[in-house]
UniProtKB/TrEMBL annotation:
<keyword id="KW-0560">Oxidoreductase</keyword>
<dbReference type="InterPro" id="IPR012786">
    <property type="entry name" value="Protocat_dOase_a"/>
</dbReference>
<protein>
    <submittedName>
        <fullName>Protocatechuate 3,4-dioxygenase subunit alpha</fullName>
    </submittedName>
</protein>
<dbReference type="InterPro" id="IPR015889">
    <property type="entry name" value="Intradiol_dOase_core"/>
</dbReference>
<keyword id="KW-0223">Dioxygenase</keyword>
<comment type="similarity">
    <text>Belongs to the intradiol ring-cleavage dioxygenase family.</text>
</comment>
<dbReference type="InterPro" id="IPR050770">
    <property type="entry name" value="Intradiol_RC_Dioxygenase"/>
</dbReference>
<feature type="domain" description="Intradiol ring-cleavage dioxygenases">
    <location>
        <begin position="49"/>
        <end position="186"/>
    </location>
</feature>
<feature type="compositionally biased region" description="Polar residues">
    <location>
        <begin position="15"/>
        <end position="24"/>
    </location>
</feature>
<dbReference type="InterPro" id="IPR000627">
    <property type="entry name" value="Intradiol_dOase_C"/>
</dbReference>
<feature type="region of interest" description="Disordered">
    <location>
        <begin position="1"/>
        <end position="26"/>
    </location>
</feature>
<dbReference type="Pfam" id="PF00775">
    <property type="entry name" value="Dioxygenase_C"/>
</dbReference>
Length: 199
């Protein structure tokens, strides 16, 4: 007999008329089990095509979030979505298109990866980013567009549906260290976050 088979659910003890409320976060406990060696390094730092994607995660008061966790998904430089395993055990040469990085005490994160290419002709290239942090009941999803192709950025359907000041929160900036992308969880300059349909 499988669990629950042949049994009835106990009636709710909640008084009539009361509704459920959301749960509360009890962590964060990200640093105890989710970061792993090589997580932020989709390619070794010495790779000839390596690019650094980095930035800071800020809360609504503009303070750094020292214990956030970010996950990165991306196509490769040919616009192909990688299907290879090995993200949790890097072998030094297989590009899996996925990585995980935690923030440090100043809210900073960093990935070493390859520049993505568009997955469709005449589309803008971007990284997909998920953010986990204290106070969030679920992860947040956003995109990090490359800043180079102004024509593709202007034609992108998602960016085209946003006001100019909101659009800027999804485009990385080039700096001496690579690509800079700050994540603002709420308040002034809040990053645009996307609804994700499961299934």
């Amino acid at each position: 007999m499988s669990p629950g088979e042949g049994t009835e659910r106990a009636p709710s003890s909640a008084p009539a008329g009361n509704t459920s409320t959301p749960g509360q976060t009890v962590g964060p406990f990200f640093a105890f089990g989710l970061p792993y060696p090589g997580g932020p390094e989709l390619v070794p730092p010495g790779h000839p095509e390596a690019v650094r994607l980095h930035g800071v995660v800020l809360d609504g008061a503009g303070d750094p979030v020292p214990d956030a966790l970010l996950e990165l998904w991306q196509p490769d430089p040919a616009g192909r979505i990688p299907r290879e395993p090995g993200s949790l055990h890097r072998d030094g040469y297989t590009f899996t298109g996925w990585g995980r990085a935690g923030t440090d005490n100043a809210g900073r994160y960093s990935f070493t990866t390859l520049p993505p290419a568009p997955t469709e002709p005449a589309r803008a290239a971007f990284f997909a980013l998920a953010v986990f942090a204290r106070g969030l009941l679920d992860r947040l999803f956003t995109r990090v567009y490359l800043p180079d192709d102004e024509v593709a950025l202007a034609a992108d359907p998602l960016l085209g549906g946003l006001p100019e000041e909101r659009r800027r929160t999804l485009v990385a900036a080039r700096d001496p260290h690579g690509l800079r992308f700050d994540v603002v969880l709420q308040g002034e300059g809040e990053t645009v976050f996307l609804a994700h349909r499961h299934g």
